Amino acid sequence: MGLLPYMAVFVKVVEAGSFSAAAEQLDTTASSVSRQIASLEKALAVKLLERTTRRLKLTAAGTEAFAHCSEMIRSAQSVLDLAERINTAPQGLVKISAPRAWGKVLIAPHIEEFLQRYPQVDIQLRLTDRPVDLISDDVDLIVRITDRPPENLAARPLFRVNHVLCASADYLRDNGCPQHPADLAQHSCIYLGEVAGDDIWKFRHLQTRECISVKVRGRYATNHSKARLEGVLSHLGIGCFPRFAVRDALAAGIVTEVLSDWDYMNAYYGMSWILYHPDRFLPPKCRALIDFLVEKIVSDNT
C-alpha cells in the first residue's frame, strides 16, 4: 500500500515525459520525483525507465507496469467521481422511524411531495411506538418525543408535542363539561388501554402549576388516535389526543377541547426531535429529508 503514491508519480512522469515536467505538475522538485521512482524500482526489483540526457524510455517491465498503474489511477478517479456525486446529489434509500400517530399524521401526507422533489431518493417509513436504535434497527433517522435527547446522537428539534382532551358537542350537552380534572372520574373517557397505567391521566395547571392524577374509566379504550377520534365523534366520551392529531377536527368545530387550562401529560409529551448519527459527512439523502421535514412540519405546528 505504501507504494501507491510512487505508482501515481510514475504514471505522471511517463505522461509528462520528464522528471522536471512531472515535478512541475505535482508542485514538487525533480530530485524528489527521481527519488520516488528509484524507491519504486527498488521495491519492485525491476527497472521501469531508461534514462538518457534527452528523454525517458519505458523498459518492457515499465510498459506493463505503466498499464496497470494507469488503470489504478482511473479507478481512483472513479472513486472520487462517485464521492462527488454522492455528496452533491441526494440519492438512495432513507429509512426513517417515527411514532405511529406522529408519522401517519405528520410525515406520510408529505411523502409524495418529497419523492417528486428528489426523484433519486426512496423512503422507507417505519411506524412504531417502541424505542428504536439507529444501529440495531438499521435506520438512518429516528423521530423521538423527549425533553432529553440522547447525548451520543445528533438531534434536530421540530416542535413541542402537547395534548388535548376533546369531546363532541352532543356528549358535553348530555353529560356536562368537566371544570377540573377531578371531574373526569364521573365521565366516560376513551383512553389508550395499551399498558398498565394508561387509565391514570396526569395534569398540570398552566398558571398555578398544580399537578393532579386522575383514574379515569370508560367502556372503550384503543391505542390508535384515529380510532379514539372516531369514538369521540360517536359521542362515546372524552378522548385524549396529541394536538396535531385533532388539529383539523378542532378547527372545523366537530370536536370541543375541554380543560384547556391544564396540560395533559403522558409518555408522548415533550419536544419532538429527528435523531441521527453525529457524523459530519451526513449523506445528502438524509440531509434532504431532515431539511424537508423541518420545512413542512415545523411551519404546520407553530
Structure explained in plain terms:
The mean pLDDT is 89. This protein has 302 residues and is an alpha+beta fold. The protein is built from ten helices and 14 strands. The longest helix has 29 residues, at 60-88. The chain is rod-shaped, with a radius of gyration of 33 Å. Helix 1 (4-16) packs across helix 3, helix 1 packs across helix 4 and helix 2 packs across helix 3. The protein folds into three domains: 4-88, Winged helix-like DNA-binding domain superfamily/Winged helix DNA-binding domain (Arc Repressor Mutant, subunit A, Orthogonal Bundle), CATH 1.10.10; 95-145 and 278-300, D-Maltodextrin-Binding Protein, domain 2 (3-Layer(aba) Sandwich), CATH 3.40.190.10; 163-265, D-Maltodextrin-Binding Protein, domain 2 (3-Layer(aba) Sandwich), CATH 3.40.190.290. The strands form four sheets. The protein has a five-stranded mixed sheet. A four-stranded mixed sheet has the order 8-11-7-12.
Features:
302 residues; D-Maltodextrin-Binding Protein, domain 2; five-stranded mixed β-sheet; four-stranded mixed β-sheet; alpha+beta; 3 domains; 10 helices; Arc Repressor Mutant, subunit A
Secondary-structure blueprint of this entry?
Layout: H1 4-16, H2 19-26, H3 30-44, E1 49-51, E2 56-58, H4 60-88, E3 92-98, H5 100-107, H6 111-117, E4 121-127, E5 141-145, E6 154-161, E7 163-167, H7 169-175, E8 189-190, E9 200-205, E10 211-215, H8 225-233, E11 238-242, H9 243-252, E12 256-258, E13 262-265, E14 270-276, H10 284-300
Parallel strand pairs: 3-4, 3-5, 8-11
Antiparallel strand pairs: 1-2, 5-14, 6-14, 7-11, 7-12, 9-10, 9-13
Helix pairs in contact: 1-2, 1-3, 1-4, 2-3
